[in-house]
Specification:
Blueprint: H1 3-49, E1 54-55, E2 58-66, E3 69-75, E4 78-80, E5 91-94, E6 97-102, E7 112-120, E8 123-128, E9 152-170, E10 175-187, E11 198-205
Parallel strand pairs: 7-9, 8-9
Antiparallel strand pairs: 1-4, 2-3, 3-6, 4-5, 5-8, 6-7, 9-10, 10-11
């Protein structure tokens, strides 16, 4: 390879190196720049969507948690279920982490769009009492909040659950089961009224 060829290779290497540094810089700067806005919208999303009490320790924003997706990670979330048994109050869901994937283009818009959900090590307790009342009926009706009033857009096209413990107790139907190490992967446009969902499920014991 001649001298001119070495110069070309060197310039390409420098350009690629600069591009990598630029991308890494963006991956560090974007989460910091938008963290407060994203955190506010997640808190609003939880308050607008769920009737039950929601608690969590912190919200972190990073590209590296579910690379290459920008993800807002809710640390140790818990959701109280609807009280259907005065003798057996219970949480509907507790998890190690709940991640919300963020559509990058939406950061430039007036609404932040969450299009992926990642749930790590959740414990999910579903209870239906003898009257048919269910503790998981915690979602608020969608017509309670006008779309124009929302600063977020929830259009889920991927749902991933890892290492879940799912317990189901239906006193009305006399049905009980527990699924241990439950993994689920679902993909499809879940924002549509009618949608097709591709699912993969793995259960260690049932």
């Amino acid at each position: 390879m001649g001298f001119s060829g070495k110069k070309v290779v060197k310039r390409i290497a420098i350009a690629l190196g600069a591009l990598v540094v630029f991308i890494l810089g963006l991956m560090l700067i974007v989460p910091v720049f938008f963290k407060d806005t994203i955190n506010d919208e997640i808190k609003k999303l939880l308050a607008d969507s769920i009737e039950g009490e929601v608690a969590f320790e912190d919200i972190n924003v990073s590209f590296f948690k579910n690379f290459p997706y920008l993800t807002a990670t809710v640390v140790k979330p818990s959701i109280e279920g609807v009280q259907v048994d005065s003798l057996q109050p219970m949480k509907l869901l507790e998890a190690k982490e709940l991640g919300l994937g963020i559509n990058m283009m939406s950061l430039m818009d007036s609404k932040i769009s969450f299009d992926r959900v990642f749930i790590d090590s959740p414990v999910i307790d579903l209870l239906v009492n003898e009257k048919g009342e269910a503790n998981y009926m915690v979602m608020k009706p969608t017509d309670e909040v006008e779309d124009d009033d929302k600063g977020f857009d929830l259009q889920i096209d991927r749902l991933e659950i890892k290492n879940a413990l799912l317990r189901y107790c239906d006193e009305a139907g006399n049905l009980y089961f527990s699924a241990v190490n439950f993994d689920y992967l679902g993909s499809g446009n879940m924002s549509e009224a009618v949608f097709q969902l591709k699912s993969k499920i793995r259960i260690h014991s049932f």
